[in-house]
Specification:
It contains two helices and 15 strands. The protein has 194 residues and is an alpha+beta fold. It starts with 5 loop residues before the first helix and ends with a strand.
Length: 194
């Protein structure tokens, strides 16, 4: 080493210093990456624990707070349903056409409506049987209805020479109060003024 010049010694010293500096920077970078990796792992674990705990707690909640209502022999559910019923109407023996929507649309509300098939559709959440009474359906599809009249035809109006009356038949059984009838899945309803 004694045969090398002062400039060469300085150059070797500078190279050694550069190498040591690079090694120190590499070590610092490794430590920084390790700290970053630890932080990411802790965050991921924290998120998993929080959401796992929330999921567990939610799974233990009893969302069914309302007992079902019994109508006749039908256990009426609260919450979302998808039911269908059929309805025909006549005045003094002459069938009355019920309104239908144009095209693929529906006529009525999301909960209580008809399509081009002419069936009663009950869809979405129902919180009470009161929400799906026949009078509501008739109003939803644009039929004028009151407790004693439908289509502007009132109880007591003439029907073939006699005072007529609105009568609802549900699955072959006559009911006096058509207005407050609760529509149930699969029913065949006939609303007749006779």
């Amino acid at each position: 080493m004694e045969n090398i010049s002062q400039a060469e010694k300085q150059m070797l010293k500078d190279q050694q210093a550069t190498k040591e500096k690079e090694t120190a920077e590499n070590e610092a970078n490794k430590k920084q990456r390790a700290r970053t990796t630890k932080k990411v792992i802790y965050w991921v674990l924290g998120i998993v624990i929080v959401f796992g705990g929330l999921g567990f707690l939610i799974s233990k909640i009893d969302f069914k707070t309302v007992e079902p209502t019994v109508i006749g022999n039908v256990n009426f559910p609260t919450g979302p349903i998808h039911w269908h019923a059929d309805l025909t109407a006549s005045v003094c023996g002459v069938n009355r056409e019920l309104p239908k929507p144009v095209g693929n649309a529906h006529l009525g509300t999301v909960q209580l409506h008809t399509h081009e098939d002419g069936r009663i559709h009950i869809e979405a959440s129902v919180n009470s049987p009161d929400e799906i009474k026949l009078f509501r359906y008739l109003k939803n599809i644009g039929i004028k209805v009151a407790e004693d009249s439908v289509f502007d035809v009132k109880n007591g109006d003439d029907c073939n020479g006699n005072p007529g009356k609105w009568v609802l038949t549900a699955n072959g059984i006559e009911e006096e109060d058509f207005y407050n009838h609760v529509i149930l899945d699969g029913q065949r309803l006939s609303l007749d003024f006779k």
